[in-house]
Structures are given as structure tokens and as C-alpha cells.
Amino acid sequence: xxxxxxxxxxxxxxxxxxxxxxxxxxxxxxxxxxxxxxxxxxxxxxxxxxxxxxxxxxxxxxxxxxxxxxxxxxxxxxxxxxxxxxxxxxxxxxxxxxxxxxxxxxxxxxxxxxxxxxxxxxxxxxxxxxxxxxxxxxxxxxxxxxxxxxxxxxxxxxxxxxxxxxxxxxxxxxxxxxxxxxxxxxxxxxxx
Length: 192
Prior knowledge:
- There is one protein chain.
- This protein is an alpha+beta fold.
- The protein contains seven helices and six strands.
């Protein structure tokens, strides 16, 4: 992995994680004076052009975590992360919550604990990762009806947990920063 492909964690001024951004977006935030402070380790130095008056070359040091002005804390308290299979599979660590085996993403499916045909909803608290064999075996039944007990209780990730689940190559300092925003009871803490 090159430094240019490393994503930067953007937070609001209070330190609440907001999103992963590419270095180009971070440079734009620096250039428009929207960066309040930085955390983490320096990961990239971007050099610009030369100043006609001073002859000095511009340079921006990018850190792994940048805080920008403004706060969205009030919006994040009610935020419901969008549900996608890839994020769901990461939440459940690519483990079928019926047989307990780990699978590749192409071998997994989204299972509704309470099936849609029985009034279940397509929400975080009602979906789990299931291998295609277990999902087919369970069919349109509840785990109790199918005699297939769940190995873990499905949960809706908090915003910070969702940001973690979206990350691909998370640096150690970014991981420490994100995990500090996880609830104490977070099921994702044991993966750190």
C-alpha cells in the first residue's frame, strides 16, 4: 500500500469521527483553512508550487487524523447507519451466526432473524450474517422454529463503530482513536 492510498480519518472539532477521506480532500481542507487541529502520525508530505515573491515552495504535512471546524454531534446521536451486506459482514466478522464458521464475502448472505414474510424488518437489529447453506436451511422460519440458535445478538453499530466498519487499512493510531469512541459494551472492542 502506498501512502497515497492511505485514507485519513476526518473528525469534527470536538473529535467525533465523521468519515474517511482521501489525501486530495484533506489537502483541500487545509488549503481552505478548515482544519482545526491534527492528531495521529504524519503520513504524507504534499509539495506545491513556488511563491513568486518569496521563492518558497508550499508544503502541507498530512496526518492520519484531522479535525475540522464545526460539529455534527447532535446529528450523529440520532444517526442510523445505512445497512449494506459488506458492512454487515464486517460487523459479524465474516462469521455465519448459525454455524460459527468464517466465510469469504461471496459465500455469505444477509439473513433476517424474524423473516420478512413474518413481519420482520430489514434493520440492523434483525439481520445477521449467514452462510448460504444455513440461510437456505433456515428458510422463512425464525431461529427457534428452525432449531438454529443464534451465536450472537444482532446490533446497530454506533456512528464511530460504523466508521470503523467502513475502514479498509486502518492505522494503529486511527484504530486507537476510533475505539475510544466505542461504547464500553461494544462487541467490536474484542477485535482491536
